[in-house]
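Minutes, project check-in
Item: structure for the 653-residue chain
Input as provided by the requester:
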Amino acid sequence: MTENMRAFRNFFLYKCLFALTFWNHVSLSVENELFTSVSNGFPKDNSDKNIKSLPLLYTNNHQSKANFDWVVLQNTTESLSLSEITNDNVKKLLALLSNFRQGSRLQNLTLTNVSVDWTALTAIFQTVWHSSIEYFNINSVTQLSNIESYNFDYSRTSMKAWTMKKVLITDLYFSQDHLYKIFADMNIAALTIAESEMIHMLCPSSDSSFRYLNFFKNDLTDLLFQNCDKLIQLETLILQRNKFESLPKVSFMTSHMKSLKYLDMSNNLLRHDAADVQCQWAESLTELDLSSNQLTDAVFECLPVNITKLDLQNNQISSVPKGMAELKSLKELNLASNRLADLPGCSGFTSLECLNTEMNLILTPSADFFQSCPRIRELQAGHNPFKCSCELQDFVRLERQSGGKLAGWPAAYMCEYPEDLRGTQLKDFHLTELACNTVLLLVTALVLTLVLVAVVAFLCIYLDVPWYLRMTWQWTQTKRRAWHNHPEEQETVLQFHAFISYSERDSLWVKNELIPNLEKGEGCVQLCQHERNFIPGKSIVENIINCIEKSYKSIFVLSPNFVQSEWCHYELYFAHHKLFSENSNSLILILLEPIPPYLIPARYHKLKALMAKRTYLEWPKERSKHALFWANLRAAISINLPMADGKSCGETD
């Protein structure tokens, strides 16, 4: 046939189809190019053999030409779609389909919006069955009349896959066998009956050739295929969105399906609570979808032992029980949208490679997960309410070491608690090593405590703190006893110009030089000396305190001997205490001999401070300077004191 003749024949075909009022719409699908109308042109190579499909929308127009060239049509199309089939035009549909005998090119037929009685429906089924059609789809079917028994002829067919969706049965009272037997005994590879409110399906009467069954969105229950041993070649069974309730019964249903590999039981009402009920699954089953049911932790007691891919998404599982039966072949496990509080270990899944735990209740995932799951290649753990804490810090650190095994990182991993960190990505959450390492924190705290104790102890020893505490206590006790014994004496009366504090080794200078020059010289100076003014019966400390308080000044004769005397230290401390408590200028320091700094004990830090800040009188070695020394000393203690008879010192009758 020449190219011109092919073009002419195609042109004639399209013009005929366009002119017929029997058909309302025509579209041609040509390998890689879609022609939305006849006028768009012809196939590029002008060859009719490239025409793959010819969908036709039927209209109730009786002006169609009866002599349409069906021979051309059946030889040039592989797919046909018809719509709006009723009892009025079903005979014309049957006449059309009868032209597609076995051996014709038509392989795919789709009927949409079919509303016929039972007789017409079975006639369509039987005609399609004996045609060249391999894939039959019928959608939105309304069966109008009563359903009766029909002896379906299953011989001589090219059918491979039969699909029915949205079937409405208006007959409320009929024998299920009359309807379901037609489909149950079909000797084809694939059968789909979906969204049809189907409540049951019969077990085939003989060994079935079904390899694929899809009963999506019906009303099937646990009674389906119980004790049915005819589905020996079935590999895929889809029972999604039905009304199954018992997981053990589902397992018993599969026990006779020797070739079953994939089972979809998602979106049912499945439960498994009875621990004493044993499950019996098909040993060949490797993929199982149990998502969107009502399963709890007990589901792990009822699973196929050879399963490789398991979907338990959207159930009520809170943990994977320890001691469960080991699923050695399981490689993919989906536990998303459950109630898990932590990542499950892999003690029961030694071959696990992919795990999904998204949208659970995991606050702080276990940091040892990858250690317990050495074969894991991908972990999906995002969209959990993570609590950003030290424990989570370990998990974040583990992610950096995992080599990108966390799917969705970092966008799907955010802090939920505490509130001030909500929305923070885990990759941006950091805590110091000290804050998260309890042992290190305790050791650090212990070391700091020991250092603090050591420093305090050193300072106490160096500054003689215990001694000062003891002196303060004695001062307080002495004052308390004085107030208790003589409550009427609220104010101390000065009796001496000065109290003399000196070392016994310097007593000769005090007795031969200091006392004579002050008491027997000009003026009337009364000095308080411990040898003559301490009251017998009282403690030395009490006598020191009383003498200092009754004296206007306190004279300290400083020398290397002085800093070696414990009692001199007492006297200096109490005098210094009076200096600050009464805010007075009562201290007079006489440096009898130079004191090398290294001789001054550490506890004499007050003496060091006084010598550094206050002016002291230095005893001159030259005799010619003694008079000036005594004059300066008398001036420092010059004051009139009341005598016993009421007169001041220095006054005469």
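Outcome recorded: The radius of gyration is 56 Å.
No further action items on this chain.
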